[in-house]
Amino acid sequence: MPQRKRQESSTGIYHVVGKGIARENNFNQTREKKYFQKIIRKYQSKYAVKIYAYCIMSNHVHIMIGAELQVLSLFMARILAEYAFYYNYKHNRNGHVFQNRFTSECIETESYFWNCLRYIHMNPVKAGMVVHAGDYRFSSMKEFFSGKDPLIHPDSIQLVKQRFCDRMSFDDFHGKRKYEIFQDIYEEMEQQRIEIAERIAREMYAQARMNYLSQVFEEKEYREEYMERIQQTLHVSQRKSKLLYSKVRNQVKNN
Length: 255
Known about the structure:
four-stranded antiparallel β-sheet
């Protein structure tokens, strides 16, 4: 099956995700995460890329990166190949470490840039690894106001400090969420859709001043409106909206 051609971003900024093969925890150990940071630092100046944000999870990595499309591919191929060699040697194994090619999505607007940056930093919180995004050691969240040797590019630090007056306002921003789906492993992207569908239900409940949340699912008028909102907000088919509806209804029922 031919590989799909990568889309080129008009801003030159991309959100990329490298996924461990077969959901293997290829960044499971602290020294493995540190080594991957070291590789990024080693090659970012050589390839003249700008790291705007990153987060190294246990089985995948997120990087928001500024680069020409061809350079992006060369940079990612180099860092993933070098890490794969290290990982295989360390664990006395052979074969692929990452699942196919890395995935990429274009960052085309300022609002999408900020929402994606927030999403990247919030990954460890969603995974239950930390309570606050700033507590995670292997993301860029702590680098913007720390003054220490950052992995991220100075342009990214400048953008953050222009928008946020201090660390507290930057932290507060991470507690918010927009109706957008970001590139991630399949399970995480599906969970994003479910979370948004549930928020839509709760908004309807508040707006209509219902007596209880389950009215959204039980009463035909509300149910049809809810399904339509899911389709329009998430840009999914009627069939997919029904699946999301069922999952949210079950969650609400069991809570």
